[in-house]
Amino acid sequence: MIRHVVMWKLNAEDPEAQQSAVDDMAAALEPLVGQIEGLESLTVRRNVAKAESNWHAILESDHCSVEALTVYYTHPLHVTAGAVVKANTRERVCVDFEV
Q1: What's the CA gap between 27 and 23, in Å, rounded?
Q2: From which residue to which does any coiled coil extend (predicted)?
Q3: How many domains does the chain have?
């Protein structure tokens, strides 16, 4: 199993706008579970502490293999959802690891 973790800095500055952005991103990404083979789980959440110094939001997803993660990256549904993410974010970091 491969865990894919992404953290973002959001364009929005105030907490309400940040939550709205995270809600939009979650609505675009979370339904991909069951639609992309090998994507086992996916959640998007907003940071709730130390907003001035921490990243604003996180995605955590599990994929059955590195190959499944590669399929996810390029899958048309993920690419479409990614446009929602890109419209709401200004920075991104990622790590993928075996669990």
Answers
A1: 6
A2: none
A3: 1
Report the pLDDT value the prediction gives residue 89, as an integer from 0 to 100.
Answer: 98
pTM value? 0.93
- Give pLDDT tens digits for 31-62: 999 999 999 999 999 998 886 779 999 999 99
| Torsional sign, CA 29, 22, 41, 95 | positive
Question: Quick check: is 17 in a domain?
Answer: yes
Look at residue 35 and tell me if it is in a domain.
Answer: yes
Q: Tally Cβ neighbours within 10 Å of residue 40.
A: 14
Domain with 85 in it: 2-61+73-91
Q: Which helix (H) or strand (E) holds 18?
A: helix 15-29
